[in-house]
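Appendix B: complex inputs.
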Amino acid sequence: MDRIESLRRAVAASPADPALRLMLAEELTGAGRRAEALAEYERLLTDDALPPDTLVTVGELAAAEQALPLLRACLERAREAGVVEGIGRLQALADDLVRIRVAADGAAPAAAAVPVAPETLTFADVGGMTEVKKVIHRMIILPLSRPELYARYGRRTGGGVLLYGPPGCGKTLLARGTAGECGLPFVNVRIEDVVDPYLGMSEQNLHTAFETARAQAPCVLFLDELDGLAFARHKHRGSDARRLVDVLLQELDAIGSDNDGVLVLAATNAPWDVDEAMLRPGRFDRVLFVPPPDEPARAEILRVLLREVPTEGVDPAALAARTALFSGADLRSVTEQALDAVIEQALATGTEPPLRMAELAAAAGAVRPSTLDWLTRARAYVDFANQAERYADVAAHLATREVRRRLRTGA
Ligand SMILES: Nc1ncnc2c1ncn2[C@@H]1O[C@H](COP(=O)(O)OP(=O)(O)OP(=O)(O)O)[C@@H](O)[C@H]1O
Ligand SMILES: [Mg+2]
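Resulting structure:
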C-alpha cells in the first residue's frame, strides 16, 4: 500500500515519466486494483509509451474489466507493433465482449451467450403516439402473432422496419416497446459496439451481433443509428464503409431467407443518408416516421420528468398543450431551466419554494424546440429531392397547421 502511495506521488510530480507510471500500473495490478491500473495503462497507451511486450497483458486486463475500447486499442497497437504471440487470444476476448455487450445491452453478466430475458417495457410505457403504435401493430405485431392469416392470403411478411424521425422523439423507446408487446427479447446493437477503426473489425463485430441475435431467436434485433452503419455508398466512397454496408446487406438477406425468428428493427435521424440498397424488398422495406411526441406523449414525458420534484399547481397536460414540437430532450431542458430558476429563488430567499407553473411556462417560452431544425431539413428532401413518396408521412406532418406556423416564424 505504501509503495503504491509513494509511486502515486512520484507520478504526480513527474507525470511525463512513463517508466514511473508503468511501475505504478504494475504495482496496482499486483494489488488487484485493476480499474486503477487500467487508468494508468490507458494514459500510457495514449502517450504511446506502453512497451509492445506489455500490450497483450494489458489487453487481457482490459478484457477482465470489460473495457472494450481499451482492449481494442491494445489489440490494434499490438498488431501495428508486429506482436504475434497472444493476438489470437486477445481477438477472441474482444469477440466475447461484443457478444456479451450485445446480448445484455450494456449490462455486465458473467459469461458470454447469456440468454436475454423477454423485454418488459410495453406500449403502455410509451405515452401517446397512438397513430405510430397502431401502424407498428399492423406492420409488425399482427404478422408475427397471426402468421396463418397472412399465409392464407399469400401476403408476404418479414423484412425489417426502419423507424426515422427527429432525435429524442421515442424511436428507441418504441422499438423496445415493440419487443415487449411481442414478448420477445430485445437485442440492442449500438454503433459504438460495432464500429472499430481497425481494419475488418467492424464487419466482424456486426457479424457477431447478428450471430448473437440468431442464438436468441425469436427476438427483436435493433440497429440504432442505422445511417452510421449503412451510410450511402455513393456519398461515401471509402472502401471500409462499403465493406460494412455489404456485410449488413448479407446479414439482412440471410435473416430474410432463413426465416429464423429474428425481427429486425432499425432507427435513424437521417434516412436520406441510408444506403438505398438497405431499403429494397426483404431488407428495410417498411419505413416509418416517428414524429415529435404528440400532446398526450408530452404530458406523459413531463409527468415522468417531474416525478421526484416538489411541485405546486403544476399541470403537465396544460404544459404539454403549449410545447408543440418539443422532443423528450427539449422537455427535459424546460424542466431543468425551470428548476434552475427555483433554485435561484431558494438561494436568494433562504426558503425552499416548490416548482410552479410560472417557472415552467417561462422556461417553455425560452426553449426552442429542436425538432424544428430536423423538420426544416426534412422539408428540403420532401420538396426538392424527389423523395415525396418515400417521405409522405413527413409531408403530412409538415402540412399540419402547427408545424407550418412554427416553421414560418422559425421560433
Ligand atoms: N412517447 C413517449 N413517452 C414517454 N417518454 C418518451 C416518449 N418519447 C420520448 N420519451 C423520452 O424521451 C427520451 C428520448 O427518447 P428516445 O431515446 O426513445 O428517442 P430517440 O428517438 O431514440 O432519439 P435518438 O434519435 O436521439 O436516438 C427518452 O428518455 C424517453 O424516455
Ligand atoms: Mg434512440
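Residues 106-112 have pLDDT under 50 and may be disordered.
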